[in-house]
């Protein structure tokens, strides 16, 4: 996936496909600031997944939004955000309900009673 708005400088080699997920309940700003002649900054909403290309030596800064400011809350090397290509068996019908990037279950089960509609019995 190419960065259409902010292409990497032509002298950059070793670009990788990366993914960052905002697992917080706050808006974050993701920035890569250590690559000369390249500007990368994106807003990442709570629960949003950001997929991007970056040089492998890039350092992503995560700024977490507060009321009228943002605090640098993390710095992550881009080599820790590299997406692995999903294997062919992750696309079969047996893998529905899984996330091919993290391979963790997308839906979580909880201990709730089956839903019944007035006059209809639930099927268990």
UniProtKB/TrEMBL annotation:
Organism of provenance: Nostoc parmelioides FACHB-3921
Protein known as: DUF1830 domain-containing protein
Region (Disordered) location: 87-109
Domain of life assignment: Bacteria
InterPro entries, A to Z: DUF1830
Pfam families: DUF1830 (PF08865)
